[in-house]
Write a sequence for this structure.
């Protein structure tokens, strides 16, 4: 009887414990199309010119790492949605320094 109560108690403890699952990021990279890059350029000139006028930076002015770091901050600051931000990202990364 004691063994049965012990086993039941252990089962309850194990079933109530928190389970930790590590998140796994799966990222599929699909190269942007020429149309997406062109759309990104238009959006880049339209949105970025508002604050960076008269000097809008060319994609080749920065490395991929530098663009990747600054774009999320600038997108939030300019209130650019994720779709437009991704198109702008496609444009600047297509011409960024390696």
């Amino acid at each position: 009887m004691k063994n049965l109560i012990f086993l039941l108690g252990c089962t309850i403890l194990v079933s109530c414990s928190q389970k930790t699952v590590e998140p796994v990021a799966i990222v599929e990279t699909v190269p942007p199309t020429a149309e997406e890059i062109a759309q990104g350029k238009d959006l880049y000139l339209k949105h970025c010119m508002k604050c960076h006028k008269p000097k809008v930076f060319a994609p080749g002015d920065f490395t991929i790492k530098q663009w990747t770091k600054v774009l999320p901050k600038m997108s939030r600051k300019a209130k650019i949605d994720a779709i437009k931000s991704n198109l702008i990202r496609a444009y600047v990364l297509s011409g960024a320094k390696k």
